[in-house]
Amino acid sequence: MSNGARLDHDGTPLDQPHPRWHVRVRGLDKSFGANHVLDHVDLDIERGKVNVVIGASGAGKSVLIKHFMVLLRPDRGSVWVDGTDVFALASKPLSSFRRKFGLVFQFSALFDSLTVEENCAFPLKEHTKKSRAEIKDIVNDRLGALGLEGTQRKYPGELSGGMRKRVGLARALVLEPEILIFDEPTTGLDPLATRNVDEMILAAVERYKVTSVVISHDMASVFRIADRIAMIHQHRILAAGTVEEIQASREPYLFEFIRTSGVAAAYGKEAAP
What we know:
Structural class: alpha/beta
Distance between the termini: 46 Å
Helix content: 25-40%
Strand content: 15-25%
Number of helices: 9
Radius of gyration: 19 Å
C-alpha cells in the first residue's frame, strides 16, 4: 500500500530521482499478526555508498530490506526507488524493477551441484538472451575482478567460506544491478576472512559504482566499511547518519550496543588496523 504522498518532508518530490538518495522509505509499518515489527520507519539510502543497517537480532532489519524489492508489502507507508513508488508497480514492471537489485545471501546460497562458473552463469541464462560466449566472458570478468581466477570448475564445497561469499557477489553482479544487498555477509567467518569480505564489498562499490545496503551486527566490520549507518530499535530507526555521527552519539541504547560489541566508539574505518 502506498501512502499516496508525492512530496517529502523537505518539499522535494518523491516521484522523481533524487541526486543523493537512491532509496527513500517513508512511514513504513509492518506487522505479522500480533507481532509489530516496523513502526512508521523513515530511512534514506545514499546513492553509490555503503549503507549499513544495524540492530539486535529480531529487530526487523531483514523485514525492512525485503520491502525494497517488494518481497514484502507494508501495512502502511511507501518505498521510493529512483522516484518509483515500488508498491504501485504491477506484476510485469515489478519483475523488471527487481533487476535493479543484486542479493548476496548470508550463506551464499550457491547450488552445490553446479560449478562456480555455472552458479554465476545461472542468472544470465534465466533472465537474458545472451550467447554462451557472452555469458562466459561476463562470468570470467566478475570472477577475475573479485580475485577468483581459476575457480570456474570448482564446486562450492571445495571453497572456503570467504571464497563462497565472493562467488555469491560475482553471481549478484553479472546482471549489473544498481543496488546490492548483503545479508549478514561476515556471519560465521574468522577475523581474516571477515576483513577480506569487507574489502570485497568496498572494491565492488568502487569498481561497479553500486549502492550497497548491508545488514550486520558485526560492529568492527560496520565501522570498516560504512559510509552511513542506521540502527533499528523498538520497531523504529533509532539513529541514522555518517560513521562519525553514529560514533559521536550518546543515545543510551546505541552507545551501549557499540560499547558491548567490543569495538571502541572511536574505531572508524579510516583508523581500522
